Amino acid sequence: MTARIIDGKAFAEKVRAHVAEDVLAVKSKYGITPGLAVVIVGEDPASQVYVRSKVKQTAEAGMNSFHFEMPSDTPEAALIAKVQELNADPRVNGILVQLPLPKHMNEATVIETIVPEKDVDGFHVINTGLLAIGDKKAMVPCTPLGCLMMLQETLGDLSGKKAVVVGRSNIVGKPMAQLLLNANCTVTIAHSRTADLKAEVMAADIVVAAVGRPEMVPGSWLKKGATVIDVGINRIPAPELGEGKNRLVGDVDFASAAEVAGAITPVPGGVGPMTIACLLRNTVTATCRQNRIDL
Ligand SMILES: NC(=O)C1=CN([C@@H]2O[C@H](COP(=O)(O)OP(=O)(O)OC[C@H]3O[C@@H](n4cnc5c(N)ncnc54)[C@H](OP(=O)(O)O)[C@@H]3O)[C@@H](O)[C@H]2O)C=CC1
Ligand SMILES: Nc1nc(=O)c2c([nH]1)NC[C@@H]1CN(c3ccc(C(=O)N[C@@H](CCC(=O)O)C(=O)O)cc3)C=[N+]21
Ligand SMILES: [Mg+2]
């Protein structure tokens, strides 16, 4: 079997085009331009790449983009003050604080400072709780939301499917499992203490890998025809591309997995572009709710 490649890049372009139409409608009917503020603390080069594409795509969708860079030794109180300023700024409809934060900061404290209505990442405990009770008002974390959209596009109704999520972080694994549960999948969450990861993966119709370990899931672990969503973004040395060069790989061994899976997302060009598209979508949703606009 050779898997169908789920083209996240093309799908994300469609989502962004739709977002741009909604932005135009909000502007022309209500005179409001949605605004997204991105705050990055420190100079992690990988983070800088995502932040640059977020800023660029926000502008391309016709939204205002506010970009703040703070040095890595910024006191936590100064970051909190910045978030409070953005909370109070009516031009700002969405706030994203790039994670991870420097070690001297408590990420939860910073995230809980964002007003839930502007929490376009969906990381605030209020949004986490709303998602857990299946309330439509939840701001849903962008990466899991993008994964769900690709799964629904590939499989249609997900009811009754056996899904395994490998990874249980608050930003990817847990909300992903929650979304799959809300979509009526039978969900297993696997993690570093899982006794027999291979057996869990082999039983699944849907595999979402969000671990951060390059190519750890081989094709030999997959059920034939499974749908595979690879969230991992890992930069590994690629001497074949030249001295000192790197390449991007996922948490799934793409070559062997594509022989067994029914459909699979590539890295790059899968989950990553959908994450940013969903961030723009969430920013428009937040803008409409804050202004009681019903598009
Ligand atoms: N494409 C995108 O838009 C995004 C991509 N990412 C990428 O997704 C990946 C995961 O990110 P994130 O969730 O933040 O990562 P975390 O490091 O926060 O979580 C990793 C999870 O994987 C589990 N894990 C680690 N080792 C193993 C193992 N050997 N077997 C099974 N489970 C294991 C951990 O288990 P335990 O809890 O027991 O420690 C943990 O739950 C990374 O590659 C990241 O770069 C992240 C966000 C967005
Ligand atoms: N508050 C917060 N929210 C986030 O959503 C968040 C974060 N912090 N910290 C970092 C992770 C990671 N993340 C990615 C988004 C897009 C791509 C992406 O577009 N990747 C391209 C490739 C980019 C490249 O070449 O490096 C792709 O997969 O095709 C990757 C990773 C969002 N994150
Ligand atoms: Mg993490």
Short key terms for the protein model shown above:
alpha/beta, Rossmann fold, six-stranded parallel sheet, three-stranded parallel sheet, 11 strands, 16% strand, binds NADPH dihydro-nicotinamide-adenine-dinucleotide phosphate, binds 5,10-Methenyltetrahydrofolate, binds magnesium ion
In short, what is this structure?
This protein has helices at residues 8-30, 45-60, 76-88, 107-113, 125-132, 142-155, 173-182, 197-202, 254-257, 271-290; strands spanning 4-5, 35-41, 64-70, 94-97, 162-166, 186-190, 206-209, 227-230, 234-237, 246-249, 263-264.
Walk me through the structure.
Homodimer. Residues 141-290 form the Tetrahydrofolate dehydrogenase/cyclohydrolase NAD(P)-binding domain. Keywords: Amino-acid biosynthesis, Histidine biosynthesis, Hydrolase, Methionine biosynthesis, Multifunctional enzyme, NADP, One-carbon metabolism, Oxidoreductase, Purine biosynthesis. The protein has 295 residues and is α/β, with parallel strands linked by helices. It has two domains: 30-128, Leucine Dehydrogenase, chain A, domain 1 (Rossmann fold); 142-273, NAD(P)-binding Rossmann-like Domain (Rossmann fold, 3-Layer(aba) Sandwich), CATH 3.40.50. The chain contains ten helices and eleven strands. A six-stranded parallel β-sheet has the order 1-11-8-7-5-6. The chain has a three-stranded parallel β-sheet with strand order 3-2-4, sandwiched between helices. Helix 2 (45-60) crosses helix 10. Bound molecules: NADPH dihydro-nicotinamide-adenine-dinucleotide phosphate, 5,10-Methenyltetrahydrofolate and magnesium ion. Residues 143, 166-169, 171-173, 190-194, 197, 210-213, 231-234, 271-272, 275 line the site of NADPH dihydro-nicotinamide-adenine-dinucleotide phosphate.
